[in-house]
């Protein structure tokens, strides 16, 4: 892995770790190729992201918006770290949380259309909004959401994404905070799914081709 000031960049040739070195659920052992990002590294990086976010946004009430379903684990852990900073430092701000569901995937490919389900975005008027995403690939999904949020005149909007994927399909969009920049590999775990499977996996892992066919819909 290569460190940059903004995020951790995982090289194209980096294929992760032998899955036998980690604890993975028995029912997924034959489906996983490698452990790509171990759970402990995810948690440590998330703690640092919480510190960076509070440094930038911690002077005003934060409206944190979780993008479901894949973002729920990252969101929960990020909020725990922000709450810890609220308890243990002089910088303390109220946090409001809400959830929005976006649909843009079928199997391992983007469907190219985005639907926003749930939240009435009028609640964001005049607020400091923090959008929490699991992964950004083409950027189309998050840009659609941001355009809708900005129609309702928030004071500030920032985006944090645990992962951003290097891909020729990218629109060039980059969020304000990035956990890891990864190669163009299909990953699952830590609430990222493949047709609703693998959300219950702690590590972020690379799925093997046999599993893609096994769980295909």
- What is the second-level CATH architecture? 3-Layer(aba) Sandwich
Enumerate the strands of the largest sheet in spatial order, edge to edge or round the barrel.
1-2-9-8-7-4-5-6
Instruction: Give the class-level CATH name.
Output: Alpha Beta
Main beta sheet strand tally, sense and closure: 8 strands, mixed
Structural class, from helix and strand content? alpha/beta
Summarize the structure.
With 217 residues, the chain is an alpha/beta fold. It contains 4 helices and 11 strands.
Protein architecture, described:
The chain has 217 residues and is α/β, with parallel strands linked by helices. The protein has one domain (2-214): Rossmann fold. The protein contains four helices and eleven strands. The chain has helices at 39-57, 72-88, 140-150, 209-214, and strands spanning 2-3, 8-9, 32-37, 62-68, 95-106, 109-118, 128-136, 156-165, 177-182, 187-188, 204-207. The chain has an eight-stranded mixed sheet, with helices on both faces. A hairpin with a 4-residue loop joins strand 1 (2-3) and strand 2 (8-9). It is globular and about 50 Å long.
């Amino acid at each position: 892995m290569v460190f940059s000031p903004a995020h951790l960049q995982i090289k194209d040739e980096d294929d992760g770790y032998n899955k036998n070195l980690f604890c993975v659920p028995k029912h997924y052992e034959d489906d996983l190729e490698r452990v790509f990002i171990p759970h402990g590294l995810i948690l440590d990086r998330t703690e640092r992201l919480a510190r960076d976010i509070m440094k930038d946004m911690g002077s005003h009430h934060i409206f944190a918006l979780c993008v479901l379903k894949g973002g729920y684990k990252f969101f929960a852990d990020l909020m725990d770290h922000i709450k810890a900073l609220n308890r243990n430092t002089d910088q303390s701000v109220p946090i409001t949380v809400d959830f929005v569901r976006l649909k843009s995937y079928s199997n391992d490919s983007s469907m190219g259309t985005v639907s926003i389900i749930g939240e009435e975005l009028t609640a964001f008027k005049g607020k400091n909004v923090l959008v929490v995403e699991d992964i950004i690939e083409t950027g189309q999904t998050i840009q659609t959401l941001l355009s809708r949020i900005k129609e309702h005149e928030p004071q500030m909007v920032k985006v944090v994404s645990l992962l951003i994927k290097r891909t020729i399909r990218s629109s060039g969009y980059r969020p304000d905070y990035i956990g890891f920049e990864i190669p163009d590999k299909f990953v699952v775990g830590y609430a990222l799914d493949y047709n609703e499977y693998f959300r219950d996996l702690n590590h972020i892992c690379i799925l093997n081709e046999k599993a893609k066919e096994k769980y295909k819909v």
